[in-house]
Amino acid sequence: MDWNGRVDGSDEDILRIHQVVQVKSLDELMADDYTGKKVCFVSYNSNEGIRRNNGRLGAADGWKHLKTALSNFPIFDTNIRFYDLRDPVDVKGGKLEEAQEELAEVVAKLKSKDYFVVCMGGGHDIAYGTYNGILSYAKTQSKNPKIGIISFDAHFDMREYDKGANSGTMFYQIANDCKRDGIKFDYNVIGIQRFSNTKRLFDRAKSFGVTYYLAEDILKLSDLNIKPILERNDYIHLTICTDVFHITCAPGVSAPQTFGIWPNQATFGIWPNQAIGLLNTIAKTKKNLTLEVAEISPRYDYDDRTSRLIANLIYQVILKHFDCEIN
Question: How many other C-beta atoms can be found within 10 angstroms of the C-beta atom of residue 199?
Fold first, then answer.
């Protein structure tokens, strides 16, 4: 899709993302010789994982609406270059696993050129491809890669996958892959809904040493909960599933969280201002960071409310990661 939006002029202090983003093929991105601050958006065009997981479809169009929402954001640091992988990673003929492998290859290659990779889904099955891309690159740098996963999600996504992978299996897949290969599985989830996960999933998470925080406890969290994860790992996989947020903030998701009571509570879905401090702490890390967002379903959204919310969080993370303060 094309990037477009409001144009106030061409002076540096009135530019917007759509005016500066460079849309390129993977070969062109790999050949680009810019060595400064740079972001590359990677789109993942998939409903397949959600379909297999019996969820409501629509997330395949999420990345398109995210780009629309990002387009008009102003440029605050002209040293940050924005790139967009021209062709989305596409699930063709229901072949989810092949698309995940393709995504992993794309992520690994871009990380080898020091791009800050931002993957945009699509279903949360995007996470298996993203993680394996990080792992593939990390293995070229160390025999013992240390990858910390920080997930904002209402669900563990550790379901069985004996009948095939889907949008609710990827972290169980990663856990078993890590066990097989002797790699530490460092999975941390913020926003878990007590009634959206079976007892088996809670037990499985505990058996794999998963650190998790219920949505209702988010107000108790601080950078003291986040910094140890950042300190013990060399790579951080930050993944945001939009169903973690309260339905009034994020109605256009695959599995909405309903019945919120007060704006300063999170019993049934967290509020963005409750997450932003934690996201800022993660974004400021000097470790190798990769961001992904998933499960925006525009067909269920109102005025692109969900896309606008997540686009704001993406841009906030980008600016914080590159030490760009807006005064």
Answer: 7
Q: Which residues pair with 83 in a beta bridge?
A: 22, 40
The separation between CA 305 and the C-alpha centre of its own chain, rounded to angstroms, equals: 18
Cα separations (Å) of 115 from 39, 69, 147, 173?
5, 21, 17, 26
Instruction: Report the alpha-carbon distance of residue 129 to residue 125 in Å, rounded.
Output: 8
DSSP structure class, residue 125 = T
Q: Between vectors from CA 29 to CA 27 and to CA 32, what angle results, nearest 5°?
A: 110
Q: 248: buried, middle or exposed (CB in 10 Å: 19+, 13-18, 0-12)?
A: middle
Give the number of other Cβ atoms within 10 Å of residue 16's Cβ. Answer: 19
Place of tokens 């932003």: 276
Q: Residue 11 corresponds to which amino acid?
A: D
Residues 6+ apart with CB under 8 A from 251: 300, 301, 302, 305, 306
Cα separation, 255 vs 56, in Å, equals 7
What digits encode the pLDDT tens for the residues 140-191? 999 999 999 999 999 999 999 999 999 999 999 999 999 999 999 999 999 9
